[in-house]
Design brief:
TIM Barrel; Isocitrate_lyase_ph_CS; two-stranded antiparallel sheet; Pyrv_kinase-like_dom_sf; 2 domains; Putative Oxaloacetase-like protein; methylisocitrate lyase activity; globular
Length: 306
């Protein structure tokens, strides 16, 4: 791009950057973020990729369980906020079932693309879905699942986007391992870029799904205290996975810390907050310096003394 006669190198779109990471890195680690503050903390720590958890979105934005309460508008709005805090850091976002038939799936892809999302995963549960680590799940027939993936891929191509389409199956708990593999292979055949077997229960299952889907990258959903054993990114890499997400990485510590602080206020009237956590520290974490630079560049001095 040329501006005022000067060539300016624009940053890569986040989706393109994620495809680079898939090609270059042995393992992509994406911590779960559920709001702008948790995303800012993950960026401050220095992660190459973030994951917008659907359960976390339902809990934080709606105060509801992950039982299909969140609509496309809820999820897209949340994803846009997170993806644009640092547009150079890819955001993988939950897109549930795609929110309807092929036309709605296509609209979901369009909306996520325009919001700056780098990747989304679409699953084979029925519309009234639930968290993958709860019992009682139901899945749609394989042809409907494939139609969702096919619609997503077609929409991506029409947009000329690098958005990464991740096919997730929950059939392991409902129909067994073999059926889950059939579904993932069909999804890859339909154009999915990454495979996602939800609720892996053993190392043997993990190795086998990665072997059977190779060379397609496979994602591991590392939900602590759920159906899947606890594995580190290195252990996941050795099993054959290419991406690992940690949906509860912010939710669980937030619950514990907030609950403890609120209980302390109720009991003693004091928060017990670390004295080092000042208002300025909070605002610096969420972009105070960037805001000051923009103001100064425009000729202002509003934030010069904060």
């Amino acid at each position: 791009m040329v501006t005022n006669g000067t060539k300016v190198d624009l940053p890569l779109p986040a989706a393109t950057r994620l495809r680079q990471l898939l090609a270059e890195k042995d393992m992509i680690v994406a911590p779960g973020v559920y709001d702008g503050f948790s995303a800012r903390i993950a960026l401050d720590v220095g992660f190459d990729c973030l994951y917008m958890t659907g359960a976390g979105t339902c809990a934080s934005k709606l105060g509801q369980p992950d039982l299909g309460f969140a609509t496309l508008n809820d999820m897209r709005e949340h994803a846009e906020i997170l993806a644009n805090l640092d547009p150079t850091t890819p955001l993988i976002a939950d897109a549930d079932t795609g929110y309807g038939g092929p036309n709605m799936v296509a609209r979901t892809v369009q909306q996520y693309h325009r919001s700056g999302v780098a990747a989304l995963h679409i699953e084979d549960q029925i519309q009234t879905k639930r968290c993958g680590h709860l019992g009682g799940k139901q899945v749609v027939p394989v042809d409907i699942f494939v139609s969702r993936i096919r619609a997503a891929v077609a929409a991506r191509k029409q947009l000329g986007s690098d958005l990464v389409v991740i096919a997730r199956t929950d059939a392991l708990q409902t129909d067994g391992f073999d059926e889950a593999i059939v579904r993932l292979k069909a999804a890859v055949e339909a154009g999915a870029d990454v495979a996602f077997l939800e609720g892996v229960t053993s190392a043997d299952e993990a190795r086998e799904v990665c072997r059977l889907l190779s060379p397609t990258p496979v994602l591991l959903n590392m939900v602590e205290n759920g159906a899947t054993p606890s594995w580190t990114p290195e252990e996941a890499r050795e099993l054959g996975f290419k991406i690992i997400i940690f949906p509860f990485a912010a939710l669980a510590p937030a619950y514990e810390a907030i609950h403890e602080t609120y209980a302390r206020i109720k009991k003693s009237g004091r928060t017990g907050i670390n004295p080092g956590f000042t208002p300025k520290k909070l605002f610096t974490l969420v972009g105070l310096k960037d805001a000051a630079k923009i103001d100064e560049a425009a000729g202002g001095s509003l934030y010069g003394k904060v």
